[in-house]
Design brief:
By secondary structure, the protein is an alpha+beta fold. 27% of the residues lie in helices and 24% in strands. The structure holds zinc ion.
Length: 372
């Protein structure tokens, strides 16, 4: 059964996609949906076919009819892109281009357009032998697949199933639309989804519908770039809505103290009093500039702290303890600086901070002399 499928589904989803028209100039735009050239390029990469050798393979691949469902159109975005910065661009007559005004190596600024956060369902329909060949390649690609440009990485597996369908329309209606978790509440699922379906003449004397569009994206060869036209019919299809794949995970508890809370300020003052205005770690006297308290737990943070949740520390010891906590990625329960097991680590971190500070001071003192 699996070997006789006439249709293959591809899911194209990622932070960025770029389905270029054939422009090779400074401004490179993207089409609103994957092009046949882009999809067959992706398949050739998965098969490990080089651009120069693609022509032979494209003969069979071009026979596959392609339909695209726009599940999420995405937003258009321009990227600032430079070519030749630092190493230079070659002139036609040889040598490297130099900018007239600055006499430095010329850098070309090229504008590239992307579709952000788009999602497409592509159906390829044709001979089952070709379909199986493509499926095998996409399941175990020789070179990594990309969404139109090499920098555009897919965020979900590209292979999205196969089946037998009388036409591309039926195929594109078969796979349900999948909401994201954030869309479950509040966002109503689309009633119909826009689709771009390749028009195939049912007979030799059939006439294409008058509203069909011409896309020059049938790749005959990638190197040199040769593209032929095909006809595309725009339609919209009603689809089922699936349940979201993502599971709801509650956010991790984020410890946060309400430093302006008056109850908390009261507790802080009580703790300094209790510790006789000394750092519990290094025993340095606390001044209004150096005194801090350490939360040994954030379980009651935000104004509900008890005296026992806090310890008096000088700023240096507090910085050292905080650095250790960040390094360990601790949760609500934190370091109690009075526990002997933390002693060596806190001493080490204090020394690192002092060494770093003196290095910074020396650097600042040295720099004006070095300039002279
Ligand atoms: Zn201290």
């Amino acid at each position: 059964m699996a070997g006789t499928a006439n249709t293959l589904f591809l899911r194209l989803e990622g932070p960025l996609q770029a389905w270029g028209d054939t422009s090779k100039f400074v401004i490179r735009r993207t089409m609103e949906a994957p092009t046949k050239s882009g999809i067959l390029g992706l398949i050739c990469a998965a098969m490990g076919v080089r651009r120069l050798d693609a022509r032979q393979h494209l003969k069979d691949l071009n026979k596959l009819a392609m339909g695209v469902r726009i599940d999420r159109p995405g937003a258009r975005w321009w990227d600032y892109h430079t070519v030749g910065a630092g190493y230079g661009l070659l002139k036609a007559e040889g040598g490297i281009k130099i900018t007239g005004t600055t006499k430095t190596i010329e850098t070309l600024v090229s504008r590239r357009e992307y579709l952000c956060d788009a999602s497409f369902l592509v159906a390829l329909r044709g001979q089952s032998e070709t379909i199986q060949h493509v499926k095998t390649a996409l399941e175990d690609p020789k070179w990594p697949p990309f969404l139109g440009r090499k920098s555009c990485v897919p965020s979900v597996p590209i292979m999205a199933g196969q089946g037998n369908f009388p036409g591309l329309k039926e195929a594109l209606q078969y796979i349900p639309w999948q909401p994201r978790l954030v869309e479950v509440d509040g966002v109503s699922p689309p009633g119909e989804l826009p689709c771009l379906i390749e028009w195939q003449a049912p007979s030799d004397d059939a006439i294409a519908p008058s509203d069909a569009e011409v896309w020059y994206d049938v790749p005959i060869s990638f190197d040199p770039s040769v593209h032929w036209p095909r006809l595309i019919v725009r339609t919209s299809l009603k689809v089922h809505v699936d349940s979201p794949t993502q599971q709801h995970t509650p956010p991790a508890p984020r410890p946060q103290a309400a430093y302006e809370d008056s109850v908390y300020k009261q507790r802080q003052a009580e703790r300094w009093q209790h510790d006789q205005h000394l750092c519990v770690f290094c025993k340095a006297p606390l001044t209004p500039h150096t005194r801090t308290v350490q939360h040994i737990t954030y379980r009651r943070a935000g104004g509900g702290e008890t005296m026992d949740d806090l310890r008096s520390l000088c700023r240096l010891c507090h910085d050292a303890v905080t650095m250790i906590e960040y390094g360990l990625g601790m949760g609500l329960d934190r370091i109690n600086p009075e526990e002997p097991r933390w002693r060596d680590e806190i001493i080490k971190k204090r020394k690192e901070i002092i060494d770093f500070r003196s290095l910074e001071t020396r650097r600042r003192r040295l720099s004006p002399e070095e300039v002279e």
